[in-house]
Structures are given as C-alpha cells and as structure tokens.
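Lab notebook page, bench 4
Experiment: in silico fold of construct C2
Operator: M.H.
Input chain length: 258 residues
Purpose: comparison with the prior construct
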Amino acid sequence: MRQARRPSPFSASVDPEDIARFEAESRAWWDTEGPFRLLHAMNPLRLAYIRHQIGAIMPPPSTPSQPYAGLTWLDVGCGGGLLTEALAREGAAITGLDASEGAVRAAEAHARATGLANALNLQYRVGSAEDLLHEDKGPFDVITALEVLEHVADRGAFLAALGRLVRPGGLLIIATLNRTPQSLIKAVWTAEYALRLVPPGTHTWRSFVRPSELVRALETEGFTARHLTGWTYSPWTGAFALTPRKTDVNYFLTAQKG
C-alpha cells in the first residue's frame, strides 16, 4: 500500500464544512457502533450491487475468488476505507480517495492492522477528483462514488472530473439521495434527528439530486445510464433491500462511458 499524499490547493467540488465534519469523526471510522455504523451495516448491499453490475456489463473474471483482478479502480470519497478494503481483497487495483486527511489516515491505519498495508493493489490518497486530473492520473476501469454526491460543493465540476477519469467503456457507480419530500422526512428528520442513525447535520436536503437530473448531467459528460434502482433500510429490523421501482429516497445509478 502506497502512502497517501496531500491534496493540491484547488478542488472546486470540495465542501470545507462537510470535510471538517467528517474530519472530527475520523477516528471512529472502524467503530461498528459509532457514527458510521449505518455504512458498516449497508456495505454488504453495496458490494452485492457492484458485483452484479460489473458481472452484467464487463467480461466475466478469470478467477472467481478475485472477480476484480485486472481492473483499475478509483473509490471516491472512500472515508476510512470500508468499501475500498473489500474491493482490494477481491482483486481490484484500487485507489481510495478522500478530501479528509483524518479519514485517509484511519484507512491506512486499518490496512496496517489487517495486513493489507503491503498490498500492491491498494493505495490511499488525500485529495479530490480534480487533483487527480491535475496530475494526469487515470484513466480507471471503474469509479465508485457512494454516498458522496450529496456532499460535494460543485456537482458539475465533480461529475466532469469523474467523466475524464473513466476510460471509454468504463463504469461509474453512484449511490446518493433523491430530492423528494420522502427523503426530507426519512433521510433527514427521521434518520438524523429522531432515530440518530447518523449524526445530525450530516445531510443538506437541497443538495440531494433527482435521478433524472443526474442522468442528464452524466450524459453531458459522455455517460450512458445503464441501471437504476432504489434501496431501503428498515430501522426496526436492520434489513437493507434493493427496490427497483422505489427510488424516492436512496438509489444506485450505474453509467457507462462512451
């Protein structure tokens, strides 16, 4: 695992207030009962969705135990590495990218603790997608940006950067929140303030994006939407499930470049 580097001075998509909020909680990334417990719980659903999309659109892997071997991957907004580590273990040559230095340090520390620190297919980087463009990094076969889009300061700049970082034929997999009355009630009022599933102030409802808006924005950057599905979480049972016809709160979108 190569060491993280500091970001460059400019990053139009980075929201300093959001980064400060995550920075304050960075030591708790791998606490399964802490402020990121919901992300720990939903990781199996995220991995299952990614696996299905890769299998449906890209050639089948030569090694079933390493389904992502040979794929170059960028995990944007990687946080403490919950998803990044799992993908590295399945063979992806992956870079975990986050604007929070504390989050990246937590990811590196966990990689050392779990024996992944010397893995050649895993590296972490402090910075933004624009930073990688500035340094002429990429292109990548796959980019994941899960629970990130609702936190960026400039959505257009962010998607433009991702569009230039994905190779032709490559995939961009996004998970984010729909801007609907239902998401205001469930994702903000209920999840943050009533049930305290995530820390209050985590989300700003006006930053949520409708699927139709996202599809149009991605088309501008040369992507074609391939798959859209919603997902739900029951706080009473702790169960996550994909809901193909119900995207009013949370949803996944897979798009292909070119």
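Observations: Residues 16-257 form a domain with the Rossmann fold fold (CATH 3.40.50.150). The chain has one domain: 16-257.
Next step: discuss at group meeting.
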